[in-house]
Amino acid sequence: MTYFRELQPSWNNPLAWLALAPAGIGSYAILQIAKTAGSRTPYSAVLSAAASLCLALWIFSIRLDTDVEQAGLRLRFRFLWPTRQISYEAIARAEAVEYEPIKNYGGWGLRRGKHDGRAEWVWSISGRRGVRLHFHDGETFLLGSRRPEELAAAINTRISAVHVA
Domains of the chain: which residue ranges? Predict the structure, then answer.
């Protein structure tokens, strides 16, 4: 059973749109080379444009999926990182937070930064809001979310259910 689900596509991040620049420049370069070389376009120009287009398509296919399920919290950074499963027994609490992705973590994506002087992993795709998971061992993990209050509430509800059972 799924209690909460959030799918965050990468195209919501304005920086992802910069991936289109190499594809556009590569295509423009092919046109210019083809114009000056007649009808013979060098294979390197075609391969360069194709690689740029593939990179742009890959960046636009990345998506952060968050599922609060019966068995635990499941996180998937599709086409970027393997699925991560976090058991509710390991989580002490979850809180909705605002953070500075560029200042504190160097941007979005899979990042490692510091929170309260300790190292912290961050999985985010866009925005400045998320849920900080506090683990029983003192570690923290920040998960970007467009609906952090709902996500934190769903996680805390599941943590309570596990501790009661």
Answer: 2-8+64-164, 10-60
pLDDT at 32 over 80: no
What is 2-8+64-164's CATH number, 2.30.29.30, 3.40.50.720, 3.40.50.150, 2.40.70.10? 2.30.29.30
- How many Cβ atoms from other residues are within 10 Å of residue 137's Cβ? 7
Q: Which two tokens stand for residue 165?
A: 């059972």
CB 85 within 8 A of CB 73: yes
**Residue 95 confidence (pLDDT) above 70:** yes
Instruction: Give the torsion through C-alpha atoms of 104, 62, 135, 93, to 10 deg.
Output: 90
**Angle made by CA atoms 142, 145, 150, in degrees to the nearest 5:** 105
| Burial (CB count <10 Å: 0-12, 13-18, 19+), residue 68 | buried
CA distance 72 to 92: 13
b/e map 82-117, b = 16+ CB within 10 Å? eeeebebeebeebebbebebeeebeebbebebebee
**In terms of pLDDT, which residue wins out, 71 or 42?**
71
